[in-house]
Predict the structure.
Amino acid sequence: MRPKIDYSQYGQALILEQLITTDTPSVLVDIGGNDGVCGSNSRALLEKGWTGVLVEPLPRVFEKLKRNSSQFPEVTILQVAVSHERGHAPIFIGRDGDLGQLSSLSQDPLLLPGLSEQVIQVPTVTLADVLAAQRVPEDFGVLLIDTEGWDLNVLQGLEHTSKRPRIIVTEDFNGTNEAKYRLLGAQGYQYVGFWGYDSFWVNPRYLHPAQRFGVPAHRCPPGWPPAGHDIQGGAAMLDQAACFRNSVAGWAWNEADATPPEEVYVRLQCPETTETIAFAAWRTPRPDVAQAFNSDVLMFSGFRAFCDVAAGTYQVTVIQAGGDHFVETRLGSITIPC
């Protein structure tokens, strides 16, 4: 019953799993792979044995990506930027620093508030170059793109190659969405939905189980009690910024110097009724929590649960279970939108 780790920012990797079929080629290309862990849409697939090409231009982030990918012999990492042309280009470092996630090749006015004045030059190649040089098959599984406003420039490489992914996940950006949607439609892709900041596209020549995906909720049986006995302690907090639609997210741990319990659940109670509904949650990476408490073991102290409940305001309790005991922490209320 217990879900495992979800590395993606808002659960996009869990949505992606619904589009993958048993005959989807297990090859992925991830443009803007960051450190390969935090906010990664590809990590879970690589842990299942997929072959991958991960691309990240920022030097310090690339070093983290190299370390985090070292256990995957079938993964190639490239320190370049993917663009619409070969050469070199300035990448503007985000205000969150050169290990952050806001840096971009784009100077669109919508992005400028998040960019600093620090600039580094990076080599650029096209998507067609990457697919050819890495001998990616003509028919491959998934193309993931997250380049902070530069996805359209990356996708223009599809016009210069016959290689085609069955599924594309691309970060949307208001400044280029209209042109990007036209390009993907012209290349034969069908839009199937949006989650977090990303839109999802499929090649309609292949059957996909979820042409309109659903919430990956893991509801516990009615009257579900956690196993073992209740103990005191634990710390937890809701993180509204990490929630999206009907997901509940935050961080929780039992002891600051111990790995958080693997099993984590979210219980919702509607204030107008006595009914409670519990959902199994995924653990998620939280480097900010690990840093704040100076404890590396808290890296996966995050949690995310998807809750298929009616819109409304609910009282939230997080339950961490491990061995013969569990700990409950009440977190206040959260509003689930329509």
